[in-house]
Amino acid sequence: MLRDLYGRVVTNLRITVTQRCNLNCIYCHREGEKDFEKEMDAERIAEIANAFYRLGVKKLKITGGEPLLREDICDIIAMMPDFDEISLTTNGMLLSDKAEELEESGLDRVNISLDTLNYEKFKYVTGGGNLDSVIEGLISAINAKLTPVKLNMVLMKGINDEEIFEMLKFANSFNKESTRVILQLIELIPNSNTKDLYISPEFFEKQLSTISRAIKIRDMHRRKQFLTPLGIVEIVKPLDNSDFCRHCNRIRITSDGKIKLCLMSDEKVDISNLHGEKLKDTILKVIKLRRPFFT
Ligand code: SAM
Question: Atom 15, ligand 1: which residue's CA is nearest?
Fold first, then answer.
């Protein structure tokens, strides 16, 4: 088991498999990577995932850049050990052609980034994305049983802050017999270009709590899930949130194969030349360097 000095058990691994992307979202934090060296090959990704799996990590999230740009993405998934859950976050543009093969390779579910249902705004936010392709991708993911699909909606003032209930209804329109789509509202981590778009999720929390049948608190980051008559909404609120950090059980691997201790910090540890026992021992040591970013 991987436990840090703050008693937090690391159960979730998030691997960036590429920094390449086919969109250019106005807010993208690039998973906290500013630069990168060489993209890991599938064997190396599997070796690192295996090392974490043997140390007790239960869940894997594959991310990017856009992970579906990797031609070997299905091979990567098929090479993974038997995690309790393997999920992938995608912009959905290439999903409709790949959903079935991804499922056959062992993918359990997807997160799809979808900030707005307005065609003009979608194009603007994504730097030229095609909303219809993403919706087709979503439908293919549901048909391939890559569910529950989480729709990742980054909250942006003046762009999608008046669209939450429309998006919730859209998500719920797929939930006729069972919950297949969950809306995830994500607090914008702003940079100098996007600081004017920031809006606190607390405003929406208040609105959602008035219509919720129940509010569930997840272990992961103490995220709130609002069970509303219109469907389930989860809120991801990392900024200045000591509760989020106190209950963070995630560790990251960058696209060039370094351990990244936290999205918000630049601390990385190079494990690129390590294998076997050395890799294992380094992971055990690095876990002890984790500390909450917001206290
Ligand atoms: N290309 C894939 C996608 O669009 O899902 C994977 C990479 S993307 C960096 C992963 C997630 O990070 C997306 O859901 C995106 O919305 C979220 N994200 C990116 N920049 C963000 C920011 N500044 N604040 C909050 N979330 C952000």
Answer: 113
